[in-house]
Amino acid sequence: MGGFYFRMDKPGRVVVPVGDMSIQTIEIVERADGPAWRRLERRDLNSAVPEEQRGPMTIPLDLVADWQGNWWFSILKPAAVGYITPDGQVHSHLFEGESIVNGLAADPDSVSFVTDQNLYSMRTGDNGPEITIQFPYEVGDEAAKQSFGSGSGTTPVLFGDNLIAFGDNADPRPNVLVYRLGDVPNKERLVCKVPVFKPGRSVLENSFIGYNNSLVIENNKGFKMVGISAGAEPGFVRIDVRPDLSGCDIVWENYEVRAGTGAKLSLGSRLIYVHELLL
Asked: Which listed residue, of 56, 95, 144, 274, carries a Cα 20 to 30 Å from 78's Cα?
């Protein structure tokens, strides 16, 4: 098992995390009998988690390139995040007692992610990854939700002027949290915490749409990866961050559309596209 997410490098080759604790680079080659995959490189990640702490869910989940030419990666459980340098060296940090079920988000200075307990940002350091931001968030009753993990279901989204947003798993309503990145005091990082959708009828499982200072969030309560999502709840909401960063405001709510897949914004048409669940 592995390869939850994959990326493409500059030459257009697939770079994918694989369940044998590796990152592999694969390309398509043309043959007489048709196109085929060819593995170019395999980079081992076993040093990221000590053997005695590994379990069935100790698998690479995501990877992303940074602005310095490194490939950052995440391990599901126990949570580990690290990077592979251009010359192949592996540096990592282990988060004992935590897990990661969502993707990584990279900006020019750092890589951000959520575990089942905290929001983190990290950067490369002299001795490997360094934590620059760590904030806990609310985790509600896992049994009352369909969330794929006990914590946040959202990959953080980078937007606006050095802002980051994700959703928690609070009861009875999840919150949208917006923080400031960059060189600001920790006490000034939280921009807003906004509860969304109806109590007891909402879960946030997909990364938000972020554009300028606006976010669009979908409700994923009742959506099933397999089977019929008969109990799926409708819901979309737009939230805008105030220009002075003094807070956030709900601009509109929609309780007619049920999201079946992650919604996408087209800047050309200025419309949001989503595969709707028709029950």
From this structure: 144
